[in-house]
Amino acid sequence: MTASQPPPLEAVAGDITTQRVDAVVNAANTSLLGGGGVDGAIHRAAGPSLLAECQELRRTRYPAGLPVGEAVATGAGDLPCRWVIHTVGPNRRAGQTDPAMLASCFESSLREAVRVGARSVAFPAISAGIYGWDIEEVARMAVDTVGGSDLLDHLSTVRFVLFGREALAAFESRLSARSA
Ligand code: AR6
């Protein structure tokens, strides 16, 4: 893959904690201190060094927490990747309904991944679980934002890793609409 040919985006069913990519994106919360869903799975699989790094980030860079739509990288502890990129999706259940905030998560996460030197990145369906966004809308924002990013030139793989048939179908449908 050369720099002039951005990578195809791919969607797979699976568990993001087992992905052999350089960086996985975590659908975190503002506290950066763990939670349920993908966040819980990533922290469990990564082990305590990830939480320690997140606590240090809170102390040094984000005393008020990581803002919605931003992203920050840490190491990955025991995960089979090098970095975890933590981002905070908008919480629809709390009235955060602006799709631009969701787009910002995907764009900021890509930028942070490229900044640390990742060439392959796996994303979950940010905000499509506990934060209550419709999977179709998440698929649209994810595929359109990542697919339209200049940062793709720096990457060899971008993979959406989805839980469940409905989520996979939503992403596959948006990906095929894009390439049609
Ligand atoms: N691999 C891939 N996808 C997963 C996995 C996994 N291991 N586990 C869940 N999903 P969510 P959010 C899917 O709730 O909506 C946490 O408590 C899941 O089916 O993880 O952004 C944080 O700390 C759904 O499609 O993230 C925050 O407080 C998608 O990942 C809050 O949840 C996202 O679901 C963030 O909520």
UniProtKB/TrEMBL annotation:
Gene3D superfamilies (UniProt xref): Leucine Aminopeptidase, subunit E, domain 1
Protein name: O-acetyl-ADP-ribose deacetylase
Coiled coil: none
Domain Macro: 1-179
NCBIfam families for the chain: PRK00431.1-6
SUPFAM superfamilies in alphabetical order: Macro domain-like (SSF52949)
